[in-house]
Amino acid sequence: MKLLLCSRGSVSERDWLDGLRAALPGHVVAIWRPGLAADFDVALVWDPPQRLFDEQHALKMIFNLGAGVEKLLALRLPAGIPVLRLEDAGMALQMAEYACHAVIGFFREFGVYRCQQARALWRPHAARDRGDFPVGIMGLGALGARVAAAVRQFGFPMTGWSRSRHVLEGVRTYAGPGELDEFLAATRVLVVLLPLTAATRGILDGERLRHLRGGGCLVNLARGGLVVEDDLRDALDTGQLGAAVLDVVATEPLPADHWMWRHPGVTLTPHISAQTLCADAVVQVVHAVEALERGAPLPGQIDRLRGY
Ligand code: OXD
Description:
Blueprint: E1 2-7, H1 13-23, E2 28-31, E3 42-46, H2 50-55, E4 61-64, H3 70-73, E5 83-85, H4 91-107, H5 110-118, E6 135-138, H6 142-152, E7 158-162, E8 172-175, H7 180-185, E9 189-192, H8 206-211, E10 216-220, H9 229-238, E11 241-246, E12 266-268, H10 278-294
Parallel strand pairs: 1-2, 1-3, 3-4, 4-5, 6-7, 6-9, 7-8, 9-10, 10-11, 11-12
Helix pairs in contact: 1-10, 4-6
The chain binds oxalic acid.
């Protein structure tokens, strides 16, 4: 098979190329450039230009070298061919680490103690009851399930919401738009892992944030576009939210004059909660290419209409 690589992400194309060529010795792997003959079978892409798909008419499969597919699906892709994405490839564990750090940091008030340290203030606070800090996971796919299992180990009451019904051990789950408000009302620390689609863009607006138990924390590990950022600021300013831990924002990189950089309730990281691990991702690409060759079910295939 002929594989065409075009990746404008944190892993360099050279690293992808070396990894893929070593793992798929019987195949051709080339880096995309404009004007290549249209005889490639598989496109392996992260943030590719439209031109790649305008030129390559023989593709049988598109593989997104990351978890989120909303940017890829915004392009005009050849109709009728499968689109796959990285499913876990080492990302779920990283997400779980990040989420546990954020949830425990909020519950144990580490941010408050850091501020006290800056003022040389030695002041212990009373221990809090973890039963008062139900943690809700929004999005219960492979990543959400892993995060829920990790956070649950610390004894917090757990809730979960997703578009379709999921059953997860030790997690009280809710499904669909009709149960969203009930889920939020049962949640104080909200960890967001939803895909960004037409149905989820702006899903966390002021009204929804008001349904959360007061003084809680929003942890967004998914996409900035899920949250209405002005409404988030209001929720922080009024105390409806006590804190926000944001790995993603609507405009990345976040402009230097954006209010989030300086808001005392916001902790920011630059979209690093789950970084693509080249070696793990290559294993998944190999499985996909082999499945395509055999005509077997493709791992990580998304539903193009649903958007994830
Ligand atoms: C993502 C990724 O989709 O980094 O954000 O894979």
